[in-house]
């Protein structure tokens, strides 16, 4: 794009050369036919393009340009594109002026350009630079609209994204601005917005479809994963059941452990029979769990209803033999308890530990869930033979 297009008669070429040099010295890029139209090019098309790509249209008024068909055609093109038209007075013609030149302010306001060249040149530069951002937007979006219109309104040439927002912002500032947007400006921006909205709807539909497909695939993958886990658990369960079956005769306790793991992983017609067979052959009836370290001794009560255990965790426990539930925790030793035993009548328990033995009354033994307050007797002397026989185990003195 250029700052200005100069329309002139060839008879005024010497003046236009001086004008071109003056504008160039002030940093203005000017379109003139002897510089910007290459040899053997389509002359008329190049002139039309030069007008379209220029921010301002400078018409050099003289008796010669007023009657020039070329100048009239260029002026008509500038009016069609709503270009900023700046009439530059070189010499006032005897006849009337073409187009709207007579209704516009001339440069300079007084006298002719040639008689006061430098001040008039400054006045021309100021006219070119007035509302420069607006004028450049007019040229930029006008060029894009022309290309779109020339190429049969190809949708690929429509604005989108940031460019569309910039163009719409420019158009929104049109109040009181000159030159005004053309009808083609408005059509081009409207078509761009419609295309963008349609593209957004299409994109949204595609994203929604992709989201649905992603969700479906995720659910399918989850189902596949669940199926894979299930199949793996089934396979491991069958392997454990087979191993339990193989150890059933030689080691029923190991067989029971393996069979129980198999049933926990996958209860099936292959695992349950092995479990029940191992359970039937197992010699272990109950497991007493609760001590936090190793169990050092265990003994049944005389009636066989209770079990006393001693542990290195510093406690002894009394268990219900039928349910394997703890009934009482005997606390008081400061070191591990090495043995625990019932008295012959089952009313007392003796425990041995850290250089002490303790005798506990069992008539207060009750379910573990209730508070306990067991009386105990601390023995600080060696036990007699009769006491040793009474309490079954020898305490440490």
Percentage beta strand: 15-25%
Oligomer: single chain
Extract low-pLDDT stretches: 364-383, 387-397
Shape category = rod-shaped
Order of helices and strands: EHEHHEHEHHHHHHEEEEEEEEH
* Radius of gyration of CA atoms, rounded to a whole number: 54 Å
Main structural class: alpha/beta
Number of strands: 12
Which sequence of strands runs across the widest sheet? 2-1-3-4
- Count the helices. How many? 11
Helix amount: 40-55%
Average pLDDT metric? 83
Biggest beta sheet summary: 4 strands, parallel
User: How far apart are the termini?
Assistant: 114 Å
Description:
By secondary structure, the chain is of the alpha/beta class. It has helices at residues 13-25, 33-36, 43-52, 69-80, 117-129, 132-150, 161-172, 183-246, 252-265, 272-281, 385-391; strands at 2-7, 30-31, 54-61, 84-89, 295-300, 306-311, 315-320, 326-331, 339-342, 348-352, 357-361, 376-379. The strands form three sheets. A four-stranded parallel sheet has the order 2-1-3-4, with helices on both faces. Strands 5-6-7-8 form a four-stranded antiparallel sheet, with no helix packed on it. A four-stranded antiparallel sheet has the order 9-10-11-12, with no helix packed on it. Helix 7 runs antiparallel to helix 8 (183-246) and helix 8 (183-246) packs antiparallel against helix 9. The protein starts with a strand and ends in a 6-residue tail after the last helix.
What keywords describe this structure?
alpha/beta, four-stranded antiparallel sheet, 11 helices, four-stranded parallel sheet, single chain, 397 residues, disordered C terminus, 45% helix
